[in-house]
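Field reference: "sequence" (input) and "structure" (output). Example, Transcriptional regulator, LysR family:
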Amino acid sequence: MLERYELEAFLTLAEELHFGRSAQRLHISTARVSQTIAKLERRIGVPLFHRTSRRVELSPVGRQLYEETRPAWDRITDAFTRAVDAGRGLTGLLRVAFDGPAAGQLMVGATQAFRARHPDCDVQLREAQLPQVLPWLRSGEADVALTGHPIRDDVVMGPVLVREARMLAVPTGHPFARRTAVSVEDLARVTVLRIPETLPDSLRDDRAPRHTPTGQPITHGPAAMTFTEMLTLVGAGEGVATVGAHTRRYFARPDVTYVPFKDAAPVEWGLVWLVDGATARIRAFSQAALGVVQEPTPSP
């Protein structure tokens, strides 16, 4: 029979595939994670992970064990959380991170709606730069965050709260700046700035794809760590960047022009939280945020 700490260590390492990050997430030493996994493998009789000096991978048996135990563990932890929340009510502190001023404005509205429904639960709002979102969730500095989708990692993507037109940020003197619209195929003719490699591939591929829809390669420029840094690099002629339509309102700059795409999928934003971190507070806040964006606009 698996002990709880063994299962937590196994599931965390299966998701992180890195002993150091797993130890940080579990708040134990790297040696403890390694010892726990080794003990578990001895009991099962086969390796659960293949380890080299550069990478950690699940073995076939390890992958099967993960796929069969993860859903059951989620149900157990969710049931326990619901029992605790039912006993205590929706009280305590919910830490909410947001990425950018537009996201902050939406979170203010969601917080007001949430507090009206659950006055005994406090909400702390904090702005995070995009590369900080996942580390804050994993370290417990934030319980839930509003950021760009898609993030397919060790997080749950809540319902999409905002869909907005995708635009291309270009230097004001660039030939594209004189256009009324650009095509996704035009990305093969320019250098596209990257977002940090520490972010999930799903988000990086959405914001800075490697190929156009017809298969033309896209040249990538330097990576920007913050949104302001990215727009500064655009203005300096280091490359272009795909952004959401709200950028024109919140980040108007004389050196950057925003040109709409005529054939690109919209940019999506939504709440994210850790797979094993869902609570009644998070679910209630998600519902409050969804209610805010679904409210009908008053007639003029």
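The mean pLDDT is 90.
The first helix runs from residue 4 to 16.
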